[in-house]
Amino acid sequence: MSNPILTPSIRRVIQNIRQVGYRQAWRDLQYIGDVKAGTFVGQDEHGNKYFENQNETLWRHRWVDYASHDYNASQVTPEWHAWLSHMKHLPPTIDQDVQAAKRPWQIPHHENLTGTRGAYKPYSTTTKKVKDWEPIVAQRQ
Known about the structure:
Mean pLDDT: 88
Order of helices and strands: HHEEEHH
Largest sheet: 3 strands, antiparallel
Helix content: 25-40%
Number of strands: 3
Radius of gyration: 25 Å
Shape: elongated
Strand order of the largest sheet: 1-2-3
Distance between the termini: 101 Å
Low-confidence stretches: none
Number of helices: 4
């Protein structure tokens, strides 16, 4: 008779903790909310690391370990995003089509800076139609 306390998901978590160690398991819990263990697939130019484990649940067997503490999804490059979302079967480090599509004149990938100090702020170069009101202070008599 199987132990009802050790369900398959708890068993998986315990196996993953044994595989990655306590420090990495704690970090995974803080960043992605789950303890995952898998094979290292590659790293992008920002330092993000990509992993895969075919024994995980379908559509959750590929994941990214972000390099920065303040992370968001726009830090993933387009090539790796295609691999993470299963648009490409092979990772960009192996895929010949992705390697052939890289051009030397292409600018490097940058994350979306909306909401940060580096965000684009447009300014107007035209003169205002209505001027701001400036109070005129009368001299005391």
